[in-house]
Every structure is written in structure tokens, then in C-alpha cells.
Amino acid sequence: MDISTTDHLFTTTTTTTLSILRLTPLLLSTSSLKFSHTAHHFLITFLRPQILPHTPSVLPPFFTHWSEDNRKAILYRYSLTYLCATLNLLVKGEEMWGKGGNGSGVWYLGGLVFSLGHVMWFGKRALGLLERIKRKGKGKEKEKDENIERKGEGDGEVVESLREWAAMNSQRMCWTDVPAWFCFTVAAVKCM
Prior knowledge:
By secondary structure, this protein is mainly α.
């Protein structure tokens, strides 16, 4: 192999690696947005009138398993998003920030900030609501509010916690997940 072939191979490998790095936050953000959307639509099914009477007995044990598995997936996905977005801000930064740069740095930074918002501003509240639902299923499932039970509303605390979570999750998707996805999309397009 001569030097020009080696240089070409190195340049091609570097360009490909950089392109993958530039696209990774967008792919991870797309995955996170889709997960939030799917989880929302799945869980609000428990609020439908025909299912609602069963929600207090079904949801707490379901959340015990569902939330643990999904918490890990969410943390891994967001951690990778933070890492890749930060690497994008550091690797060949002159292409994004310097004179004559493509301006994608501000979009990667915006995507990173909005993505952090998913966990930082909403994470504690979301986990608290899920914990409240799980706790209700541990030995307290027989405590029922008779007024709510007669209306077919199931156990008030479980149902109310799920309603709060659904409203919060809708806000979180609109205020953090969609803007993060948009920012990473613009950043990736500017880099290509």
C-alpha cells in the first residue's frame, strides 16, 4: 500500500466516523422521542372507561417490572445522547463554531440542553408518580375510595397518579423531546 492509498483510507475512515458521530444524537433522540410517545399511548389505555375499573389492581404490579426495565433503557439512551452531543461539540469544533463554520454547534448545544431537560426538570416528578403507583400495589390495594369505586374510577390515588404522569409526559415531550429532536436534526443536516 502506498502513502496516497493510506492517506485516502485514513481520510475516508475519519470522515465516516465523524459522520456517524454527527448523526448519533439525532438517532438517539429519535429513539427517545418514539419511546416517550409509545409509552404515553400505551399507558393512557389504562384510563379508558372500560379498563379503568381494573387499573388499580393491574397497574401497580405492572409498573414494578415495567419501570425498572425501562428506567435502565432510558438512562442508557439519554447518557449516550449527552456523551455524543458533547463529543460533537468538542471534535473538530472549528467546523461548527469557527469563522466559516457551518453553525451546527449551537444546534448540538440546544439539543443537549433540551435533552437534559427530559431528565433534569421532569425526571424526579415522573419517577415520584411511578413510585406512588407501585407503592399503592404493595399491600394497599384493598384500600378503596368507595365514592370513586362506585363511579367506575378505580382507586383514586393510582388513577390520579397516572393522569398526572400522562399530563406531565405530554408536556415533557412537547417541551424537551421534540425540541431536542429538532435541534439535533438541524445540526446533522448542517454537518452533511
